[in-house]
Design goal:
Chain lengths: 429, 426
């Protein structure tokens, strides 16, 4: 077990790579009541075209299958694992993103039992025709719920506009039609391919003794027989750099229109340090341009173009990346034009000052400390960073390294007319 | 071992609560202002809160104010409106880095407290009136916020249930105010109301973090308020439900939203309050509860089916998203679960499981400083003195008979259904 100390932050992280390839991290947090653990596989909604284990041919699986599998792992022959967790005083959950599926629990007692329950649950799949059929009704209602949610439709509307081929444009839960094609056999195929320990990461954070926890995990894994895995083969079509559609307007049962401007990222083949620096720089850039202390926020707010729902963010993973800016607005066309022109002006150097960079860096450092108060944040983000070969604890030093020149270069490269797109939700007639 | 040591200090005009802990890398300040909820002041208070947080005399624009906060290592500053029972609470929260985790060790806590004093006591006024443009801007934002409830159907149906169920009671009001009353507010009458609120509201300040109590008290000297004797609300005894109301509303939605309200006739602070909490846990509070198991897992009717308590008002609310054609089946299943609870049709194992999960949830909530403040503030609302440990012990003592007894007090009041245009709504 390796020990990694972060002196300034007063944190110590423990790491071990198990013989079967599983990466385990433990972050003791004394003083907290709860322990939080996530068990995550590097497999999400975009992994829909791959070579299944023990096969040589690529297979294309139905949309929404990674999320469906997430639901089904909680059910076993003798019942629902949610029950097991609650008997042990824990609350359990799971979520699926574009490129990972995480299972988690938090509890203030019986931590060791809960940890074993979590690991064993994920490592003992049980799917039958009958349980798969039953789940279609529940997930069908989950999909319908999101269909009625204008913010979700807007969010996916922007992504659909941006991407021509990449599966990031497919709704994580799929559609009622696509999930109708899911079978127990297909679930096993995905499971066997992606849930090998070497494609997974286990993170435990809380008032725990790292030696004790690591021993438990070692014993648990030694009881299980895993064959060595070769690298998983995934396939993605080439994605052009320009957006698929410039604008889309959805009519929905709302009173206030909504508008989001999307920017499709270039250079998305990055990972590691390079990716960390790129994503932090774009985050600083957006903060300087659209944060509450920015000149443009003041103007847009004063002109009545935005309200408190206005937000901006940047998402980057291996193979795709995008930023979104916008919110509720009475004047969606005017807002989208203004956002795009602010970005184009930033490209030519407007709005960006050394002073705003320094101030925004300080803001980000304080924000990072705030996030470290949350065990959930640490576990989830550490895993995401690690799957992209980055380290969460490098955030502050990397932020400090970013220069004004980096910021300007980033604005020049990131903001390009043909990578802009707009999606709006407007009230039904 | 005690979960949280709350130190309570009465100072002039307000009560200071300090919880010293080294769990966090930031220090949190939460300022709470409480007054009775009523139709005359609810909209004024909602607007006031937002006008105060947008600028001050020293930081006369949002840009100036937010720039200052960014310079303080991005101190988090946000406001929130809530109703707890029939009381209306404005909260101002500041979350500021603890400098011992920074290279630069300028003390930040005092700056945070000074900033709070600036927001509360030195507002952006001109000639005994709030800054006109700021008020106009915030009026627009407030109207949009009230309107936005309509666009989120889950929230909307919840608000509609409360409106229908509590017609004629202050609780029917939304904490964000009444849309049609926003326009009437002027910079002058808002300032008049500010003076009233600042001199009459019940005031509490919570400070949570790795702080020195004496230092905190010294820093707070800038926060000076007149003494006051806040209004204690008298609780009206639970109305007996005469007839169950059933309301169906049609809108262009794909998924129907079923919301059901019950009167529990039990409030936070009552002897059987802990029994009610355990009741709610077995009935619909968690993923092992009867509603989740029977509506979702067994009948496959819904993605979510849950219940929650409005502890200070004595309500139990059920919510679920279903297809319109399954309305009758869902209602039948939910009513069966309530009957099962009243008949004691639940096992010792369900009780134990629920207690374990409630205690877990409570302790987890204390791990976030905001969560801890919310737990401690229940005492202020109900004029009680529970510690987190009392709470846990209270839950652990509940017997099966206690749960049956509390279940028998619960009365169905209103069923609200938001259904699609094609649905079977009448």
């Amino acid at each position: 077990m390796k020990k990694i100390a972060f002196d300034q932050l007063k944190e110590t992280l423990y790491h071990e790579k198990m013989e079967n390839g599983l990466n385990v991290y433990i972050l003791p947090k004394q003083g907290f009541s709860k322990t939080f653990a996530t068990f995550t596989t590097k497999y999400g909604s975009i992994d829909n075209d791959f070579v299944p284990l023990n096969s040589t041919e690529y297979n294309h699986v139905p949309d929404g299958i990674a999320h469906f599998l997430e639901h089904k792992l909680f059910e076993k022959e003798d019942g629902d694992v949610f029950q097991q967790f609650s008997k042990q005083g824990a609350s359990a959950n799971a979520f699926t993103t574009f490129n990972r599926t995480a299972y988690l629990f938090s509890s203030t007692s019986n931590v060791e039992k809960n940890l074993e329950t979590l690991i064993d649950m994920v490592q003992s799949p049980y799917f039958t025709e009958k349980t798969v059929e039953k789940e279609k009704g529940i997930i069908g209602q989950e999909i319908t719920m999101y269909d009625d949610n204008p913010d979700w439709r807007l969010y996916f509307g922007v992504i659909e506009n941006m991407y021509q081929h990449h599966p990031v444009k497919i709704d994580i839960a799929g559609t009622i039609e696509s999930i109708s094609h899911i079978t127990d056999q297909l679930l096993y195929e995905c499971y066997n391919t992606f849930y090998h320990p070497s494609n997974m990461l286990l993170f435990v954070v809380g008032p725990v003794d790292p030696d004790q926890i690591m021993n438990l995990i070692r014993d648990n894994q030694n009881k299980k027989d895993y064959k060595d895995m070769s690298e998983i083969k995934r396939r993605f079509e080439d994605e052009p750099s320009s957006v698929a559609e410039k604008k889309k307007v959805l009519q929905m049962n709302v009173q206030t229109p909504k508008c989001l401007v999307g920017v499709k990222a270039c250079d998305v083949a990055q990972s590691g340090k390079e990716m960390l620096k790129n994503e932090l720089t774009i985050n600083l850039l957006l903060d300087i341009l659209f944060g509450k202390s920015s000149k443009s926020y003041y103007e847009l707010y004063n002109e009545g173009l935005i309200d408190e729902t206005f937000s901006y963010d940047y998402t980057q993973e291996e193979g795709f990346g995008f930023s979104m800016v916008g919110g509720d607005t009475e004047k969606p066309d005017e807002l989208s034009e203004r956002i795009q022109s602010i970005m184009m002006e930033a490209k030519s150097g407007n709005y960006l000052t050394e002073e705003s960079l320094e101030r925004t860096k300080k803001k980000k450092i304080g924000g990072f400390l705030r996030q470290l108060n949350s065990p959930d944040y640490i576990a989830n983000q550490f895993t995401r960073y690690s799957f992209n070969e980055m380290n969460l604890f490098d955030v502050v030093p990397t932020l400090e390294e970013i220069t004004f020149n980096d910021l300007k270069k980033s604005a020049e490269q990131f903001f390009e007319e043909d990578r802009f797109t707009v999606c709006q939700v407007i009230p039904n007639k | 071992m005690s979960v949280a040591n709350e130190m309570v200090i009465k100072t002039e005009g307000f009560t200071l609560h300090i919880v010293k802990t080294n769990k966090y890398k930031t220090n949190t300040l939460v300022w709470k202002m409480k007054a009775p909820l009523n139709a005359e002041t609810v909209t004024l208070r909602a607007l006031l809160l937002n006008v105060l947080q947008s600028s001050t005399k020293k930081y006369p624009t949002t840009t100036a104010l937010r720039t200052y906060l960014d310079d303080l290592y991005g101190a988090g500053f946000f406001v929130d409106l809530a109703k707890k029972g029939e009381q209306h609470i404005m909260s101002f929260s500041i979350d500021i880095a603890n400098e011992k985790f920074l290279k630069d060790s300028t003390p930040l806590l005092q700056k945070g407290i000074d900033f709070l004093a600036e927001v509360l006591l030195n507002p952006n006024i001109e000639n005994e009136s709030f800054h006109q443009e700021t008020v106009e801007k915030e009026k627009r934002i407030l109207k949009q916020r009230i309107q936005s409830i309509y666009d989120d159907k889950m929230r909307y149906s919840n608000v509609r249930l409360v409106e229908e169920m509590c017609k004629g009671e202050p609780y029917a009001l939304d904490a964000n105010g009444i849309a049609s009353k926003v326009e009437e507010i002027t910079p002058q009458n808002l300032f008049d109301y500010y003076k009233k609120a600042i001199s009459e509201d019940e005031l509490h300040l919570y400070i949570i973090g790795d702080v020195n109590e004496n230092e905190v008290e010294t820093f707070c000297r800038n926060l000076q308020f007149e003494n006051r004797s806040p209004i204690q609300l008298e609780r009206k005894e639970g109305s007996n439900v005469k007839e169950v109301k059933e309301i169906k509303e049609k809108q262009d939605v794909k998924q129907g939203k079923l919301n059901i309200g019950y009167r529990t006739n039990v409030h936070f602070g009552d002897q059987d309050y802990f029994a009610l909490q355990v009741f709610n846990g077995i009935f619909g509070g968690f993923s092992h509860s009867k509603l989740f198991i029977n509506v979702r897992e067994k009948a496959s009717l819904a993605y979510y089916a849950a219940s929650r308590l409005e502890s200070h008002k004595g309500l139990l609310m059920v919510m679920s998203g279903i297809e319109a054609k399954n309305y009758d089946q869902a209602i039948t299943i939910i009513r069966e679960q309530m009957d099962a609870m009243k008949k004691g049709d639940f096992t010792d194992q369900e009780i134990e499981q629920t207690k374990a999960v409630i205690n877990n949830q409570l302790l987890e909530t204390t791990d976030t400083s905001r969560g801890l403040v919310e737990i401690l503030y229940h005492n202020v609302i109900a004029n009680q003195n529970f510690t987190v440990d009392d709470w846990i012990q209270g839950i652990n003592k509940i017997s099966k008979q206690d749960i049956i007894d509390v279940a028998k007090k619960i009365e169905l009041d209103t069923i609200y259904f938001l259904t699609g245009l094609e649905g079977n709504g009448e």
